[in-house]
Design a protein that fits this description.
Length: 152
């Protein structure tokens, strides 16, 4: 049982911060991509490539946001830990946290490393947020492609 209320509060607050930052990054990024795609001249293929690479970049930034928040929380032992995989032979580093975040955000799921303790809350919410933001990107891509093909 994890009844350290301060650790629980810290994890929830950090999760809300990561959600807020990720949604702001995603919104502003989509707005920027949309504005840059509209007036851009050149082949449609280049515009599509720019759009897709930009979306991938946004998701990488969002994975890093959650990964850094996770890594910071892991510095406080009462917030939990990640167990399994290489963590049995060494301490969890920043890139381990980013890896865990990528697996969680993309809803691939985790198996080789799993969260233990209050940070499970962050992991659960990150999967939900990742699904929502990936869906948002898919919707954005569909609308942009529809606009491109209508112009042709």
């Amino acid at each position: 049982m994890y009844d350290d209320w301060m650790a629980n509060f810290t994890v929830v607050a950090a999760t809300l911060l990561a959600i807020t930052l990720s949604v702001i990054v995603h919104y502003e990024g989509l707005l920027l991509v949309s504005r840059n795609l509209s007036p851009a001249r050149g082949p449609q293929r280049i515009k599509v490539l720019y759009g897709i690479l930009s979306l991938i970049g946004l998701h990488v930034v969002e994975i890093w946001i959650f990964g850094v928040v996770l890594w910071l929380l892991l510095q406080w032992p009462s917030c939990g830990e990640i167990v399994g995989g290489l963590t049995q032979v060494r301490e969890v580093g920043l890139l381990d946290s980013i890896y865990f975040s990528a697996m969680t955000y993309s809803t691939v799921g985790f198996g080789d490393v799993v969260p233990v303790g209050p940070i499970r809350f962050l992991a659960g919410i990150e999967g939900l947020i990742g699904l929502l933001l990936i869906g948002w990107s898919a919707s954005f891509t569909y609308l942009e492609m529809e606009r491109f093909w209508r112009v042709r």
